[in-house]
Protein backbone atom coordinates (compact mmCIF):
# COMPACT_ATOMS: atom_id res chain seq x y z
CA UNK A 1 0.00 0.00 0.00
CA UNK A 2 1.28 3.45 -0.89
CA UNK A 3 1.42 5.82 2.10
CA UNK A 4 1.53 9.54 1.71
CA UNK A 5 4.81 10.95 2.99
CA UNK A 6 3.16 13.28 5.47
CA UNK A 7 1.38 10.37 7.16
CA UNK A 8 4.29 7.96 7.41
CA UNK A 9 6.20 9.65 10.23
CA UNK A 10 3.10 10.10 12.35
CA UNK A 11 1.76 6.59 12.03
CA UNK A 12 4.98 4.63 12.20
CA UNK A 13 5.43 6.08 15.70
CA UNK A 14 2.10 4.57 16.81
CA UNK A 15 2.51 0.97 17.96
CA UNK A 16 -1.09 -0.07 18.43
CA UNK A 17 -4.10 1.72 17.04
CA UNK A 18 -7.49 0.45 15.93
CA UNK A 19 -10.90 1.75 15.13
CA UNK A 20 -12.28 2.81 18.50
CA UNK A 21 -8.95 2.14 20.27
CA UNK A 22 -7.17 4.76 22.36
CA UNK A 23 -3.52 5.62 22.57
CA UNK A 24 -1.67 7.87 24.98
CA UNK A 25 0.60 10.17 23.00
CA UNK A 26 4.03 10.85 24.42
CA UNK A 27 5.36 14.38 23.85
CA UNK A 28 7.40 13.28 20.80
CA UNK A 29 4.45 11.43 19.34
CA UNK A 30 2.16 14.35 20.10
CA UNK A 31 4.23 16.69 17.97
CA UNK A 32 4.07 14.26 15.05
CA UNK A 33 0.35 13.71 15.42
CA UNK A 34 -0.16 17.42 15.88
CA UNK A 35 1.14 17.97 12.37
CA UNK A 36 -1.51 15.61 11.02
CA UNK A 37 -4.49 16.48 13.18
CA UNK A 38 -5.74 19.85 14.39
CA UNK A 39 -6.30 19.02 18.07
CA UNK A 40 -4.48 16.22 19.88
CA UNK A 41 -6.64 15.21 22.82
CA UNK A 42 -9.92 15.40 20.96
CA UNK A 43 -12.14 12.56 19.81
CA UNK A 44 -12.44 12.99 16.08
CA UNK A 45 -15.30 10.60 15.51
CA UNK A 46 -18.02 11.30 18.00
CA UNK A 47 -21.75 11.63 17.97
CA UNK A 48 -23.82 14.34 19.50
CA UNK A 49 -25.77 17.28 18.29
CA UNK A 50 -25.77 17.93 14.58
CA UNK A 51 -23.48 20.57 13.11
CA UNK A 52 -26.57 22.40 11.90
CA UNK A 53 -30.24 21.81 11.34
CA UNK A 54 -31.24 24.37 8.75
CA UNK A 55 -29.81 26.49 6.02
CA UNK A 56 -31.44 29.91 5.73
CA UNK A 57 -32.08 31.41 2.33
CA UNK A 58 -31.46 30.29 -1.20
CA UNK A 59 -28.39 28.21 -1.88
CA UNK A 60 -26.49 28.41 -5.18
CA UNK A 61 -28.54 26.85 -7.93
CA UNK A 62 -32.04 27.39 -9.26
CA UNK A 63 -35.06 25.35 -8.33
CA UNK A 64 -35.02 24.85 -4.59
CA UNK A 65 -34.08 25.68 -1.04
CA UNK A 66 -32.55 23.16 1.37
CA UNK A 67 -34.86 23.44 4.37
CA UNK A 68 -33.40 20.89 6.73
CA UNK A 69 -31.07 18.00 7.42
CA UNK A 70 -32.01 15.27 9.86
CA UNK A 71 -29.97 12.47 11.37
CA UNK A 72 -27.54 11.68 14.16
CA UNK A 73 -24.28 11.27 12.28
CA UNK A 74 -23.64 14.87 11.23
CA UNK A 75 -25.28 17.77 9.50
CA UNK A 76 -24.85 20.83 7.33
CA UNK A 77 -21.31 22.19 7.42
CA UNK A 78 -21.51 25.87 8.28
CA UNK A 79 -18.97 28.61 8.87
CA UNK A 80 -17.16 28.34 5.55
CA UNK A 81 -16.27 31.34 3.42
CA UNK A 82 -18.09 32.30 0.26
CA UNK A 83 -14.98 31.41 -1.76
CA UNK A 84 -15.12 27.85 -0.44
CA UNK A 85 -18.79 27.56 -1.32
CA UNK A 86 -18.05 28.81 -4.83
CA UNK A 87 -15.26 26.29 -5.36
CA UNK A 88 -17.48 23.46 -4.11
CA UNK A 89 -20.22 24.50 -6.51
CA UNK A 90 -17.76 24.76 -9.37
CA UNK A 91 -16.37 21.29 -8.67
CA UNK A 92 -19.83 19.73 -8.40
CA UNK A 93 -20.86 21.48 -11.61
CA UNK A 94 -17.93 19.85 -13.38
CA UNK A 95 -18.96 16.43 -12.06
CA UNK A 96 -22.54 16.92 -13.29
CA UNK A 97 -21.22 17.98 -16.69
CA UNK A 98 -19.17 14.80 -16.99
CA UNK A 99 -15.75 16.19 -16.04
CA UNK A 100 -13.22 13.58 -14.97
CA UNK A 101 -11.49 13.91 -11.60
CA UNK A 102 -13.64 16.70 -10.17
CA UNK A 103 -12.06 17.02 -6.72
CA UNK A 104 -11.84 19.74 -4.08
CA UNK A 105 -8.58 21.69 -3.61
CA UNK A 106 -6.60 21.07 -0.41
CA UNK A 107 -7.40 24.49 1.02
CA UNK A 108 -11.12 23.85 0.63
CA UNK A 109 -10.86 20.42 2.24
CA UNK A 110 -8.81 21.86 5.12
CA UNK A 111 -11.56 24.38 5.78
CA UNK A 112 -14.42 21.88 5.57
CA UNK A 113 -12.70 19.15 7.60
CA UNK A 114 -11.59 21.73 10.15
CA UNK A 115 -15.21 22.81 10.56
CA UNK A 116 -16.32 19.19 10.98
CA UNK A 117 -13.59 18.32 13.49
CA UNK A 118 -14.02 21.58 15.34
CA UNK A 119 -17.65 20.69 16.01
CA UNK A 120 -17.00 17.07 16.97
CA UNK A 121 -17.48 15.84 20.52
CA UNK A 122 -14.51 16.30 22.83
CA UNK A 123 -13.22 13.92 25.49
CA UNK A 124 -14.75 14.96 28.82
CA UNK A 125 -12.04 16.23 31.15
CA UNK A 126 -9.20 15.49 28.71
CA UNK A 127 -6.58 18.05 27.76
CA UNK A 128 -2.89 18.33 26.93
CA UNK A 129 -0.52 16.21 24.89
CA UNK A 130 -1.02 13.14 27.07
CA UNK A 131 -4.77 12.98 26.50
CA UNK A 132 -6.16 9.91 24.71
CA UNK A 133 -7.22 10.32 21.10
CA UNK A 134 -9.22 8.27 18.63
CA UNK A 135 -8.29 8.19 14.96
CA UNK A 136 -10.84 7.16 12.37
CA UNK A 137 -9.78 5.01 9.46
CA UNK A 138 -6.95 3.03 11.04
CA UNK A 139 -7.10 -0.61 12.10
CA UNK A 140 -4.63 -3.04 13.68
CA UNK A 141 -3.95 -6.36 11.95
CA UNK A 142 -1.44 -9.17 12.75
CA UNK A 143 0.85 -7.58 10.16
CA UNK A 144 0.74 -4.11 11.72
CA UNK A 145 -1.29 -0.95 11.26
CA UNK A 146 -3.43 -0.58 8.16
CA UNK A 147 -4.12 3.01 7.15
CA UNK A 148 -7.17 3.92 5.12
CA UNK A 149 -6.23 5.02 1.60
CA UNK A 150 -9.73 4.61 0.15
CA UNK A 151 -12.17 7.47 -0.33
CA UNK A 152 -15.72 7.25 1.05
CA UNK A 153 -18.44 5.84 -1.17
CA UNK A 154 -21.60 7.90 -0.77
CA UNK A 155 -24.97 6.74 -2.07
CA UNK A 156 -27.99 8.90 -2.87
CA UNK A 157 -31.63 7.83 -2.88
CA UNK A 158 -34.69 9.97 -3.66
CA UNK A 159 -37.42 9.12 -1.15
CA UNK A 160 -40.26 11.21 -2.63
CA UNK A 161 -42.42 10.22 -5.60
CA UNK A 162 -43.26 12.78 -8.29
CA UNK A 163 -46.93 12.89 -7.32
CA UNK A 164 -45.99 13.76 -3.73
CA UNK A 165 -43.55 16.42 -4.97
CA UNK A 166 -46.42 17.98 -6.91
CA UNK A 167 -48.52 18.13 -3.74
CA UNK A 168 -45.92 19.28 -1.20
CA UNK A 169 -43.26 20.96 -3.32
CA UNK A 170 -40.63 19.07 -1.34
CA UNK A 171 -38.13 16.40 -2.36
CA UNK A 172 -36.51 14.22 0.30
CA UNK A 173 -33.14 12.61 -0.42
CA UNK A 174 -31.24 10.07 1.68
CA UNK A 175 -27.47 10.56 1.47
CA UNK A 176 -25.38 7.77 2.97
CA UNK A 177 -21.63 7.34 3.44
CA UNK A 178 -19.59 4.36 4.60
CA UNK A 179 -17.09 6.32 6.73
CA UNK A 180 -16.65 9.68 8.52
CA UNK A 181 -15.86 12.75 6.46
CA UNK A 182 -17.35 15.33 4.13
CA UNK A 183 -19.86 14.73 1.33
CA UNK A 184 -20.81 17.50 -1.12
CA UNK A 185 -23.90 16.94 -3.27
CA UNK A 186 -25.63 18.77 -6.13
CA UNK A 187 -28.05 17.59 -8.77
CA UNK A 188 -30.27 18.29 -11.74
CA UNK A 189 -33.60 16.77 -12.78
CA UNK A 190 -34.89 16.37 -16.34
CA UNK A 191 -38.72 16.06 -16.23
CA UNK A 192 -40.29 13.39 -18.42
CA UNK A 193 -43.31 13.74 -20.68
CA UNK A 194 -46.62 15.03 -19.39
CA UNK A 195 -48.66 12.55 -17.38
CA UNK A 196 -52.12 12.41 -18.94
CA UNK A 197 -54.96 11.01 -16.91
CA UNK A 198 -57.29 8.58 -18.59
CA UNK A 199 -59.97 10.49 -20.47
CA UNK A 200 -58.20 13.85 -20.15
CA UNK A 201 -57.51 16.02 -23.17
CA UNK A 202 -53.97 16.19 -24.50
CA UNK A 203 -52.12 19.31 -25.52
CA UNK A 204 -51.43 20.98 -22.15
CA UNK A 205 -48.15 22.89 -21.89
CA UNK A 206 -45.41 20.96 -20.13
CA UNK A 207 -41.80 22.03 -19.68
CA UNK A 208 -38.97 19.52 -19.86
CA UNK A 209 -36.32 22.07 -19.00
CA UNK A 210 -33.62 20.86 -16.58
CA UNK A 211 -34.28 21.76 -12.93
CA UNK A 212 -31.17 22.39 -10.84
CA UNK A 213 -31.03 21.10 -7.25
CA UNK A 214 -29.00 23.38 -4.93
CA UNK A 215 -25.67 22.13 -3.64
CA UNK A 216 -25.08 21.22 -0.02
CA UNK A 217 -22.07 20.06 2.01
CA UNK A 218 -22.65 17.48 4.76
CA UNK A 219 -20.35 16.46 7.61
CA UNK A 220 -20.43 12.89 8.94
CA UNK A 221 -18.87 12.13 12.34
CA UNK A 222 -19.35 8.44 11.61
CA UNK A 223 -20.66 6.22 8.84
CA UNK A 224 -24.38 6.60 8.38
CA UNK A 225 -27.09 8.46 6.52
CA UNK A 226 -28.73 11.87 6.55
CA UNK A 227 -32.07 12.90 5.07
CA UNK A 228 -32.05 16.18 3.16
CA UNK A 229 -35.29 18.01 2.34
CA UNK A 230 -35.27 20.31 -0.69
CA UNK A 231 -38.13 22.78 -1.08
CA UNK A 232 -38.59 23.31 -4.81
CA UNK A 233 -39.70 26.44 -6.60
CA UNK A 234 -43.37 26.64 -7.60
CA UNK A 235 -42.49 26.12 -11.25
CA UNK A 236 -40.38 23.04 -10.48
CA UNK A 237 -43.10 21.68 -8.20
CA UNK A 238 -45.75 22.04 -10.90
CA UNK A 239 -43.57 20.54 -13.65
CA UNK A 240 -42.42 17.49 -11.68
CA UNK A 241 -45.89 16.93 -10.25
CA UNK A 242 -47.35 16.63 -13.75
CA UNK A 243 -44.53 14.51 -15.21
CA UNK A 244 -44.92 10.84 -16.01
CA UNK A 245 -41.35 10.24 -14.82
CA UNK A 246 -38.05 12.10 -14.51
CA UNK A 247 -34.33 11.45 -14.67
CA UNK A 248 -32.00 12.85 -12.06
CA UNK A 249 -28.23 13.30 -12.18
CA UNK A 250 -26.52 13.69 -8.81
CA UNK A 251 -22.91 14.80 -8.53
CA UNK A 252 -21.04 13.87 -5.35
CA UNK A 253 -17.59 14.69 -4.00
CA UNK A 254 -16.58 12.81 -0.86
CA UNK A 255 -13.52 13.01 1.39
CA UNK A 256 -12.58 11.18 4.57
CA UNK A 257 -10.58 12.63 7.47
CA UNK A 258 -7.31 11.67 5.73
CA UNK A 259 -8.29 13.73 2.66
CA UNK A 260 -8.80 10.66 0.46
CA UNK A 261 -11.42 11.94 -1.96
CA UNK A 262 -13.35 10.85 -4.99
CA UNK A 263 -16.16 12.16 -7.18
CA UNK A 264 -19.05 10.43 -8.90
CA UNK A 265 -22.09 11.15 -11.02
CA UNK A 266 -25.08 9.05 -10.00
CA UNK A 267 -28.03 8.52 -12.34
CA UNK A 268 -31.48 8.05 -10.82
CA UNK A 269 -35.00 7.60 -12.19
CA UNK A 270 -37.92 9.25 -10.42
CA UNK A 271 -41.35 7.66 -10.66
CA UNK A 272 -44.89 8.78 -9.92
Question: How would you describe what is shown here?
Answer:
This protein is of the alpha+beta class. Helix content is 22%, strand content 32%. It is built from six helices and 13 strands. Helix 1 (5-12) packs antiparallel against helix 2 (27-36) and helix 5 (162-168) packs antiparallel against helix 6 (234-241). The longest helix is centred in the N-terminal third of the chain and has 15 residues, at 82-96. The chain is elongated, with a radius of gyration of 21 Å. The termini are far apart. Mean pLDDT is 75; it is low at 1-61 and 122-134.
Give a topology summary.
Layout: H1 5-12, E1 23-24, H2 27-36, E2 64-70, E3 74-76, H3 82-96, H4 106-118, E4 132-133, E5 138-141, E6 144-147, E7 155-158, H5 162-168, E8 170-177, E9 181-191, E10 211-220, E11 224-232, H6 234-241, E12 245-255, E13 261-271
Amino acid sequence: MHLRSRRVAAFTSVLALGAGATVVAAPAQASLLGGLLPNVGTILTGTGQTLGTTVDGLLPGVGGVVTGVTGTVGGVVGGVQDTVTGLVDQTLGGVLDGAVGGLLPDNVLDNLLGTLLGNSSGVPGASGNGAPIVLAGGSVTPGGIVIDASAPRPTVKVLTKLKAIGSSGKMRMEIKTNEPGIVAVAGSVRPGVLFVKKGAKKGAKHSRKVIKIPSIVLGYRKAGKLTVTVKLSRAAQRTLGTSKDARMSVGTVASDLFKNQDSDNIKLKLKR
